[in-house]
Amino acid sequence: MLRGISYEQLVARLAALGITENVPNLRNKVARGRFTAPFFAQCMVAIGVDRLQFPTIDVIRTDLAGDHAAQALARKSNSKTSL
Fold this sequence. Notes:
Blueprint: H1 7-16, H2 23-32, H3 37-47, H4 57-63, H5 69-81
C-alpha cells in the first residue's frame, strides 16, 4: 500500500522470484490477513523492503484498535513520510 504496488504488480514481482501466485488468491490472503511468515517475507522481498519498523505499544493501543487498523496505520505512516 505504501509503495503504490497493485496486486497485479505484486504477482508479477513474485513470479520473477519463482513464486507462483494469482491475483484473486493474493487479494483473498491479504483481505483475510492470514498468510505464513515465509509468504510475508517473500512479498517484502518482491516489493523491495529491506527493513521493517514495528509500532510501539502506545501506537498499538491507540491506532491499532478495531477494524481496518493496519490500513489506518499505513495511512498515518505514509502521511508522516511524505512531509
